[in-house]
Amino acid sequence: MSKAIDQATQELLFTQANTPANFTEAPVSDAQIHAAYELMKWAPTAFNAQPMRIVLVNSPEKRAALVERVMEGNQPRVSTASQVAIIAADTKFAEHMPTINPGMAGVPLWKNTEFTNNLANTQSWLQLGYLILALRAQGLGVYPMTGIHNDQINAEFFADGQLQTVAVLAIGNIDETAARPRNPRHDIETAITSI
C-alpha cells in the first residue's frame, strides 16, 4: 500500500493552501496550536536540536506592545488575528541535549557560540516551515511576517537575550470571501538542477 498522502491532503497543505488575506472572527484556541506542535515536533532538525520556541501573545497589553514593533502594513493583522505567535530561536538549546539527544550532551561543540547561534537560527527557520504545514493540517490559515523590528521585539519580550526573534505569525480561520489569486511558482527547470 502506498504511503503517499492523498490528493485532498496535498491540496490542504500545499497546492490549494494560500496565505490568507483576512481571517474570520472565529477563535483559535491554544489547544489547536498545541495540536499543531504535537505534529510538527517529530520533523527532523540537525542534532535533534529543536531550537524553535513559540510564544503566544494573548494578553491585550503584550499584543499592543507587539503591534508597535512590527511594520505598519502588518499591524492590522497582528492586532486582529485570533492568535499571534512570536517565533524565536533558543540560543541555549544545547542545555536540553541530555533529554533530547543524550549522545551529544556536553560535547565541546556547544561551547562555540558562533556555531550554536547559527544552528539555533537555521533550525528554527526549518521548524517554522514544519509549523506552518502543521497549522494548515489543523485547518487554520497562517500569515507569516518578517516585516518586523526584531531588535525591538527582543528587547521587549526576550530581554535576557536567550531567545532571538525569527518571525511573527498571525493565525486564524481563513475568510474565504477575501481569498486572493495565488502568485505563480517557479517551474522545475528554474528550481532544480542536476550536476
Any overview of this molecule?
By secondary structure, the protein is an alpha+beta fold. The chain has a domain at 41-172: NADH Oxidase (3-Layer(aba) Sandwich). Helices cover 38% and strands 14% of the residues. The chain has eight helices and four strands, in the order ααβααβααβαβα. It has helices at residues 7-15, 30-40, 60-67, 75-80, 97-100, 113-137, 150-157, 188-191; strands spanning 52-56, 83-90, 141-145, 163-172. It has a four-stranded antiparallel β-sheet with strand order 1-2-4-3. Helix 1 packs across helix 6 and helix 2 (30-40) crosses helix 6 (113-137). The longest helix is centred in the middle third of the chain and has 25 residues, at 113-137. It is globular, with a radius of gyration of 18 Å. The two termini are 33 Å apart. The relative contact order is 0.22.
